[in-house]
Amino acid sequence: MNFRGSLGYSSVRKSFLHGLLRANDLRKIPSSVARHYSIRKRCLTGPLQTARPQRPEAGRLNKSNSFKIQTMLRYELIHPEILAVLASAGHGATVLIADGNYPASTFVGPRARVVSLNLSPGVVGCVDVLRALATAIPIEAAQVMQPADGSRPSIWNDFQSVLNTSGLAPALQTVERFAFYNAASTDQHALTIQTAEQRIFANLLLTVGVRTE
Question: Is 21 helix (H, G, I), strand (E, B) or coil?
């Protein structure tokens, strides 16, 4: 009997192979057929099947490797593009967390990346972004945009609270509005994260510090 061609689709050939299997006579099965179907004795009572590799379950130890099959990050920041920019930034690079009113397309560094997280009004907010960034990078300075009337926006207290809680306690430095625009447009500017923050004067310019561990 010719075992070549459409072997997997011929009921006659399958019946013949099943007969040999039930008779426990594997020697009569051509080696090329046995290799193609990965025939094993445990298939005697079931349909003829091909052996399929078993995919390791996520988080389980792979027997052939010494690592776990996991891709989950352990800190709060998981945005791929933001992580890529921060990984290539160094000491002195600046990261701007911009509120919903900030002109992110016009006041930006020549090599900076702009990532838009403004999904809907208020989502995502500046404090949420700062909280995530504080788990990923050292921060040695933080600048805010000073209103012309000299008032202190309430969101500044939220910024300082996050920095203090994260063990990063640089005091917020106030910068005049147009001086702030210039500071966020230098060659050191690496990233702008445009949020949908609705509170005004909620822009925060961070300077990346030095990793000591």
Answer: helix
Q: Are 205 and 184 in contact (CB under 8 A)?
A: yes
Q: Which residue has the higher pLDDT, 45 or 107?
A: 107
Sheet with 189-194: list strands edge to edge. Answer: 113-116, 189-194, 94-98, 204-208, 139-146, 172-176
**What are the residues facing 189 on neighbouring strands?**
94
Handedness of CA 208, 209, 210, 213 (dihedral sign): negative
Residue with tokens 């945005």: 79
Residues across the chain: 213
Angular region, 123: left φ>0, alpha ψ -120 to 50, beta rest:
beta
Residue partners of 131: CB distance under 8 A and separation at least 6? 76, 162, 166
Mutual orientation of helices 126-133 and 155-165 as an angle, nearest 10°? 20
Closest CA to 93 of 118, 114, 111, 80: 111
143 phi/psi in degrees, rounded to 5: -115, 140
Let me know: does 143 contact 202? Beta carbons within 8 Å.
no
Give the three-class secondary structure for 128.
Answer: helix
Radius of gyration of the chain (CA): 31
pLDDT at 19 over 50: yes
Task: State pTM to two decimals.
Answer: 0.67
